[in-house]
Amino acid sequence: MSRPEEIAPAEIFYNDSESQKYTTSTRVQHIQAKMTFRALELLNLEDFPHYILDVGCGSGLSGEILTEEGHFWTGLDIAPSMLATGLDREVEGDLFLSDIGNGIPFRAGTFDAAISISAIQWLCNADQSGIDPKKRLLRFFNSLFASLKRGGKFCAQFYPLNDLQTENILGAAKIAGFSGGCVLDDPESKKNKKYYLVLTAGRSERNINLENVTMDAPETTRKLSKKQIKENETRKDYIKRKKELMKKRGKVVANDSRYMARPRKIRF
Amino acid sequence: MKLLTTNFVKCAVKACDSSADSFPLKYEDVQLVQEEQDFNPEFIANMLERLDWAALLKVAADLGNTSLPSHKPDDVDPTLTENEPLLRDLHSLLLETQITEGKMVCGNCQHVYHIKNSIPNFLLPPHLA
Ligand SMILES: C[S@@+](CC[C@H](N)C(=O)[O-])C[C@H]1O[C@@H](n2cnc3c(N)ncnc32)[C@H](O)[C@@H]1O
Fold first, then answer.
1. Are A96 and B40 inside 8 Å of each other by CB?
2. Nearest 10 degrees: CA dihedral of A162, A164, A165, A169?
3. What confidence category does residue A219 fall into, taking pLDDT thresholds of 50, 70 and 90?
4. Per-residue model confidence (pLDDT) at position A261
5. Among the four A130, A149, A197, B77, which has the fewest Cβ within 10 Å?
């Protein structure tokens, strides 16, 4: 299968019929939703509603997941047909016709976080003469850095053509001041392998969620989220925690015994 | 585009990055619609903290609204019922007011960005990109 990036510039490739085809395909909807959930998981945001930038938002398949999760978003895309499809679908986010290679036109500290699903590999293209991908990547990351609040995070799933593209993307992000790296999901599977760029603009109080992944950047000490603590606890921890909670609420609970949370013998 | 967004969007031209006149953009020939949205007091309170109030006053005046308080209300706790009327007003202004058509002009380079069908066009001509 040939890559869309090799066929035509994005704003030409995603014409009316391609935008329709893309957006109404249940297969595409499913994959984009899954990757957006994964990006949110990696971002590890606190619960309250966030203001999120969706880079290369297309017709809003990724944005709709942000809405579902209770967030507010603004999306940028270079393809008018994709945005028109988004308008027809009445997505909640604001849509901007914009080339991210020319920068993110928002003032400093606008967004809590940013995501990008299947878009930033396009920045590595040089479709017309006079286009310098390195310059565009740098402009993108510099202006993205500024538009995020301090400690704001960016997670981008992308389809690199080769290792050099990944290097160029990571390199530009580092120059712009981001810390972080690349997370690889399903590395063994040629078909399902997915690249996620996970970056922090300055210092964050909450680290990204690195559960079950290896990253090609030194890992900083990480604090587990409440959810992760819950997922990791044993049956015994769980009962202890529930008992404490009940005591706090003034309920009478059984004393701890050494039989607590142990499987009992079945008696007849 | 929601009115909220006018408080964040600035000129896309690189040479305007360092100019204080590239934000807020100036709004002209604007058409507005009110569109009902779910009320989320936490989000409004959260956004209120990062609003540039002077910019909001300027843009509201461009759009013909001069009734906003001259100072930003501070420390608005969304869990207190006494704050609900204020947060509802802000909700209606920032999230339910949408710009469907119009122009946005950079105060520094004078570039005009057009809004059509609620979508602002921020593509730059080659000489500005
Ligand atoms: C595969 S689509 C993904 C859209 C959406 N994020 C989703 O999950 O469905 C990739 C999008 O990136 C956009 N894109 C490519 N290059 C871009 C650029 N330079 N600036 C803005 N958007 C771009 C394309 O127009 C296209 O809509």
1. no
2. 140
3. very low
4. 64
5. A130
- Provide, as residue numbers in chain B, all residues whose Cβ is less than 8 Å from the Cβ of A144: none
pLDDT digits (tens, 9 = 90+) for B89-107: 999 999 999 999 999 999 9
Residue A55 in contact with ligand 1 by CB distance below 6 A: no
* pLDDT(A128) > 80: no
Give the predicted TM-score (pTM) of the model.
0.86
Would you list the domain boundaries of chain B? 3-121
pLDDT over threshold 80, residue A195: yes
Ligand 1 geometric centre to CA of A57 (Å): 6
Give me the phi and psi of A90, to 5 degrees please.
50, 50
Q: Indicate whether this complex's ipTM tops 0.85.
A: yes
**Helix, strand or coil for residue A140?**
helix
* Sequential DSSP letters for A21-35: HHHH-HHHHHHHHHH
Report residue A191's pLDDT band, with 50, 70 and 90 as the boundaries.
confident
**Cα B120 to Cα B110: distance, rounded to the nearest angstrom:** 16
Both tokens of A259, joined, read 């039989």
Residue ID of nearest Cα to ligand 1 atom 17: A78
Domain extent listing, chain A: 4-201
Inter-residue contact B37 to A46 (CB < 8 Å): no
CATH number of the structural domain B3-121? 2.20.25.10
**Could you give the 3-state DSSP secondary structure of residue A134?**
helix
Please report the beta strands in chain A, taking only residues with DSSP state E, as ranges in sequence order: 51-55, 72-77, 94-97, 111-117, 148-158, 178-185, 194-201
Asked whether the beta carbons of A158 and A119 are under 8 A apart, the reply is: yes
Helix or strand run (H / E) with residue A61:
helix A61-68
Q: Chain A interface, mutation test: which of B36, B123, B128, most A Cβ atoms within 10 Å?
A: B123
Task: Nearest chain A residue to B19 by CA: give it.
Answer: A107
Average pLDDT for A69-85: 97
| pLDDT at residue A209 in the model | 74
**Residue range A4-201 in CATH 3.90.550.10:** no
Q: Which residues of B touch A48 (CB under 8 A)?
A: 42-43, 46
Tokens read off for A75: 């999306």
Q: Which residue numbers in chain B have pLDDT < 50?
A: none
Q: Is the pLDDT score of A237 beyond 80?
A: no
